[in-house]
Amino acid sequence: MAKNILITGAAGFLGSHLSDRFIKEGFNVIGMDNFITGDHKNIEHLQDHPQFKFIEHDVTEHITIEGDLHYILHFASPASPIDYLKIPIQTLKVGSLGTHNLLGLAKAKKARLLIASTSEVYGDPLVHPQTEDYYGNVNTIGPRGVYDEAKRFQESITMAYHRFHGLETRIVRIFNTYGPRMRLNDGRVIPAFMGQALRGEDLTVFGDGSQTRSFCYVDDQVEGIYRLLFSDYAYPVNIGNPHEISISDFAEEIIKLTNTDQKVIYKDLPVDDPMQRQPDISLAKKLLGWEPKIDRKEGMAITFDYFKNLSEEELYKSEH
Ligand code: NAD
Ligand code: UDP
Q: Model ipTM?
């Protein structure tokens, strides 16, 4: 019998790729989303699929699912700094109340729950690269605190249900992941730079561009999450690509990739923007036999193809 899996945030970037993967593996997928940062377009291709069912619902409200449920992936949450600055209360609620609802559902259905945590739990890290045993350096009252603290609470309540109720839980700490279906205007650096290059605008580097990130292609991320779900490890696991680059060097890379002659302009660094970020993935390697396979050159070329094929209307649509 095919197993049933609920994926929250299914109309978003990662949720839609996870839906594709689990369908391919033979699962019946129930996608849930309230479209606050997601897009119908990301799941259009699944609408008539016999293994896919969609429920439009805000996970901060009580959740009812008919019948058996074996697995839950909780991926609903705004994920881009400008999204969670714009909708801070919803961000706090989906990480806290939403997670509580999903834990309750998992307990009632005896389902295994995997939650999407983030490298942001490490804040502006004082340990580099970041290992899972680092407790982090988060400004609780800063503008990014709404996301970071919601995710930290999410991890705590998940571990509490695991310890107190014996619930089967998994925690993935996701580092910057990219690929097709990211929202062009979500403000994250890859769609931002690609949109600017395609519109013939200068690339906006925040601060002096010396801050670093390490970008993971979506298929690698999905593979890591898939393996973690079926492992027997309840503690957090970093999944990301350790190949680190400064944002100014990355801007130059995008200019080369897009074959444009855009310039780089410098803007203020957002408050609490982490200065360096690189996952230590030793644990994922040991535990899951996982490591990323797609390098930035290949992943960025696929992603650029996706953005290049968006309509003029989408390219010039402004949200902010
Ligand atoms: P996304 O914005 O593309 O997707 C999030 C989805 O969640 C959207 O479709 C949105 O409409 C939905 N959602 C938000 N609040 C909801 C609610 N209350 N009820 C129902 N649906 C709701 O973002 P993404 O990049 O796909 O991120 C997915 C998850 O992965 C998030 O939990 C995010 O924190 C985590 N994550 C992502 C990254 C990354 O680099 N992409 C890094 C770290 C963590
Ligand atoms: N950034 C930038 N220009 C942009 C958007 C982002 O220089 O137009 C920087 C941002 O300040 C951060 C890095 O790129 O240092 C990654 O930002 P993103 O929002 O993608 O993710 P974060 O890792 O900060 O959550």
A: 0.98
